[in-house]
Amino acid sequence: MVLPQPSPPTVPPRRVVVVTGMSGAGRSSVLRALEDMGYETIDNLPLHLVDALITGAPRPTRPLALGIDSRTRGFDVATVLAALDRLEANPACDTRLVFVDCDDDVLVQRYTETRRRHPLAVDRPLPDGIALERRLIGPLQTRAFRRLDTTHTVPGRLKALLEGEFSLDPQADMAVFVTSFGFRHGLPREADLVFDVRFLDNPHYDPALRRLSGLDAAVGAHVEADPDWPAFFDHMTSLLGLLLPRYSREGKSYLTIAIGCTGGRHRSVYTVECLAAWLMKIGIRVHAGHRDLDR
């Protein structure tokens, strides 16, 4: 009697995160955060070596993060896209492209403050170099699995977002980031859900509260004194109680909820604190932030 041979163990595909984007937008910060999470990171690897790195023997198993931008040797958008095609077609790889972006005026400010030279502005004004790079790498942005806008993102928030999106823990549940913002400063571009709390009574018009924020108890008491606050908060949490399990079942690993008021200092801040406490209470991994609190 011949016993059946056991099937060889299935080797899961290797996670490969390709990080690109605008120079000065924070690509290096993303790579450092991924390295802290357990990824092997390689920056500015010549493009002709990418295939050899992935397919070389012995086959590496550690997840990989590759940094590629306009300074990479042999950089050409068509070449990068062709390399991505090969990686995505390789069943041994789980490949995701991350595009790190930032508003042009903030890029100019960052380069001016650090006195660094933009790689495409050697013989031209800085804004022209930024505009040229944006045109050059535009096709990569449309191809990206995830676009990270760092215009208003502090390093701690960036790392939390990456941990939610690219965690190597297979048992990790969906993470939620809740942020306050001011509508006068624009909507958060990464938001999946937006709630507008400008209908609540505004503490800004109380001279005793104007210089305080939603982190102060007096402001919280003012917000909760609005007769529509209890019904609003109950309806919002009931809606999220319905949506969050559905998002999780659809495979979403990270959800951003943005709550806005006029300036992003009072009503939205207090609402975020209350919502984060509620999410934590029901067992959701949650990070809270306040984008415009110090403006």
TrEMBL record:
Record carries keyword Metal-binding: no
Q: Which residues form the RapZ-like N-terminal domain?
A: 16-166
Q: Can you tell which superkingdom this protein's organism belongs to?
A: Bacteria
InterPro entries tied to this protein: P-loop_NTPase, RapZ-like, RapZ-like_N, RapZ_C
Extract the Pfam families matched here.
Answer: PapZ_C, RapZ-like_N
Keywords of this protein's UniProt record, alphabetized?
A: ATP-binding, GTP-binding, Nucleotide-binding
Chain positions recorded as GTP binding sites: D69, S70, R71, T72
Domain RapZ C-terminal residues, every copy: 174-293
Residue sites binding ATP per the record: G21, M22, S23, G24, A25, G26, R27, S28
Q: Name one GO molecular function term.
A: GTP binding
HAMAP family of this UniProt entry? Answer: RapZ_like (MF_00636)
Q: What is this protein called?
A: Nucleotide-binding protein
